[in-house]
Amino acid sequence: MGLLTIIKKQKIKDNEIRCLLLGLDNSGKSTVVDSLLPAEEREPENITPTLGFQIQSVVIDGQYNVSLWDIGGQVTLRPFWENYFDRTDALLWCVDVNAQLRFDESIQELRSLIHRDQGRIGYECQVIVLLNKIDLVTPNDFVNVELMERAVLDAFGLNKSEMSGNIRQKSVKFVQLSALTGQGITQLQEELVGIINAR
């Protein structure tokens, strides 16, 4: 293998991250993956619940490679989530903001995951909380979205007043999006590129 080949491979690796996509069942994780694909590869009508896991590679701006590990959110699969964290650069935690009755369950699972992970999430592994299905939220329900953001920060032992000084806080970002309509997908791509560039 020549030096030029080694340099090219390193450059590709430097522009690459591995993301773990977790959240409750029916939160829209697979639709998020689909929305990050090029338009000609999207198949929103063929999306079914993920049983086990699926891996999809996407390229952002023609140069940033993102490997997305979409892990099923069914109750029977949740105890195995922590097994997928090896070499993970970012956790994408997907929340269906339209399913307000499941907010507590989502926060409970996130807390459990943080506890089992023993401190890696939010330090070595960046966190992007995807507040999905935002297109279905009425103006009156945006208060609940803000409450969800506060509950996520609380799960990490943080609050809004700590945002500027806490290292872990800087590793937790929120993206309001609709994977179905594409709203917020550009912001998600920018956050992913930011993680790559910050390494």
By helix and strand content, what is the structural category? alpha/beta
Q: What percentage of amino acids are in beta strands? A: 15-25%
Give the overall shape: globular
Uncertain residue segments: 6-12, 162-167
- Tell me the total number of β-strands: 6
Write out the strand line-up for the largest beta sheet, numbering strands in chain order: 2-3-1-4-5-6
Overall average residue pLDDT: 83
Query: In the CATH hierarchy, what is the architecture at level 2?
Result: 3-Layer(aba) Sandwich
- Radius of gyration, in Å, reads 17 Å
CATH class: Alpha Beta
Oligomer: single chain
Largest sheet: 6 strands, mixed
Domains, number? 1
Give the CATH H-level superfamily. Answer: P-loop containing nucleotide triphosphate hydrolases
Number of helices: 6
The third-level CATH topology is Rossmann fold
Q: Which range best describes the helical content: under 10%, 10-25%, 25-40%, 40-55%, 55-70% or over 70%? A: 25-40%
Following the backbone from N to C, one meets helices and strands in this order, namely HEHEEEHEHHEH
For the record, give the distance between the C-alpha atoms at the N and C termini, rounded to a whole number: 26 Å
How would you portray this structure in words?
This protein has a single domain, classed as Rossmann fold. 34% of the residues lie in helices and 22% in strands. Strands 2-3-1-4-5-6 form a 6-stranded mixed beta sheet, sandwiched between helices. α3 packs parallel to α4.
Summary?
With 199 residues, this protein is of the alpha/beta class.
